[in-house]
Amino acid sequence: MGDSAPASTPAPAGVAGDGFALEQLGTFEEPWAAAFAPGTNVLFVTEKAGTLKFKDLASGRLGTVSGVPQVDYGGQGGLGDIAFLPSEASATIGRRTIYLSWAEAGPNDTRGAAVGRGTLMCAEADACRIEGMQVIWRQPKVTGRGHYSHRLAINPDGKYLFVASGERQKMDPAQDTSNNLGSIVRLNLDGTPAADNAFSGQPGKAQDIWSYGHRNVLGLAFDASGQLWDLEHGPAGGDEINLVRKGANYGWPIVSEGDHYDGKAIPRHATRPDFVAPAISWNPVIAPGDFIFYSGKMFPAWKGQAIIGGMKPTVLVRVAFDGEKAREVARYPMGRRIREVVEAPDGSILLLEDKAGARLWRMTPQ
Fold it and tell me: Is 144 inside a domain boundary?
């Protein structure tokens, strides 16, 4: 991770009053996800090739975490998401539970997403290590290196771990509930299927499925009321946000608000009311990286809204919600692909660019 001097860059204003400034805090190599250890100012960042870094925003201290599992790096695969238990907010940074997701190699040129749990130990000033990392959940191993999804979200009361399981560019498995591809799964904190999932107790059904018919979920977040939402890549068009409900089928690949890359049409959700339609969709796409529900004080007009990082076009998108529907209220040109969005403890918003040499920015009101 680079240790470049902070630089302040004005960003263009959106609608009236929405001007903000960007301060550069450092650089990373192909970052994919980031999270603060609860109760601290320490931000942990995953890099796709298999490195886990951290930055203490209070002191500026930089460091690396050892004990990270070996990843299958290539295509869309590598080290993925990171999550901490909200119940450990009062724990010292020196010892706490950590969850990671990554692409894991299998036999005969196959691979699949895995999720592991371990103990994060940070006894040294500029280094941490993970002890006892064990795989607690896996996707089926298939060919290809796309659509792992493997986003993580722990529900607000800290009882369950939700994992986005992409359909690995295979499409049809998203409608096959005997496997967990193309699904969002709900697990106990030890990785076992939670009780009362969508198909609990049904023979031949994946016991971890919470919802299904998903394509490639790259955002998974709870709103202030405790509802779970996903942010999903469509095909050629049809990026979408969904309210995630137990047992709901979101229709992929039978319906979509986009079409296949070869131009072949896909029926829209309106033609099949038995599938759940998105709260909002985009065509042309925004190629989202991740999103948050903003809850801080620096941007009071944004509270409760989704802040989405876009990669194509290179924008930051702001979305407001009205019950189960959503609407885009602002779009800010960024001039850089935004892979990850994180709310800092002080209410500022952190943005991580995509790909090599990606910069970490702190966004504050101008």
Answer: yes
Torsion of CA 152, 34, 319, 238, to 10 degrees: -60
147 is catalytic: yes
Please check whether residue 303 is in contact with residue 296, taking contact to mean a CB–CB distance below 8 angstroms: yes
Which residue range is the domain that position 100 belongs to?
Answer: 29-283
Task: Please indicate, yes or no, if residue 235 is contained in any of the structural domains.
Answer: yes
Asked if the structure places residue 170 within a domain, the reply is yes
Q: What is the DSSP letter of 274?
A: T
How many of the other CB atoms lie within 10 Å of CB of 247?
12
Cα 148 to Cα 9: distance, rounded to the nearest angstrom: 34
Query: Which residue is catalytic, options 147, 150, 233, 269?
Result: 147
Distance in angstroms (rounded) separating the CA atoms of residues 162 and 154: 6
User: Per residue in 104-152, pLDDT tens?
Assistant: 999 999 999 999 999 999 987 688 999 999 999 999 999 999 999 999 9
Domains of the chain: total? 1
Cα–Cα distance, 311 to 314 (Å, whole number): 5
In-domain check, residue 260: yes
CATH code, domain with 209: 2.120.10.30
Question: So what's the pLDDT on residue 93?
Answer: 77
pLDDT of residue 109: 98
Nearest to 166 by CA among 293, 252, 240, 78: 252
3-class SS at 154? Answer: strand
Query: Looking at residue 159, what is its pLDDT?
Result: 97
Between CA 81 and CA 140 the distance in angstroms is 18
Degrees, nearest 5: CA angle 305-308-309: 155
- The single-letter code of the amino acid at 96 is R
What is the Cα–Cα distance from 219 to 241, expressed in whole angstroms? 9
What residues of the chain score a pLDDT lower than 70?
1-18, 125
Which amino acid type is present at position 181?
L
Residues in the chain: 366
Chain CA centroid to CA 81, Å: 7
Measured CA distances, 152 to 34, 83, 117, 178, 346 (Å): 11, 7, 12, 22, 23
Tell me the whole-structure pTM to 2 decimals: 0.95
> Do residues 232 and 209 touch, judged by C-beta distance below 8 A?
no
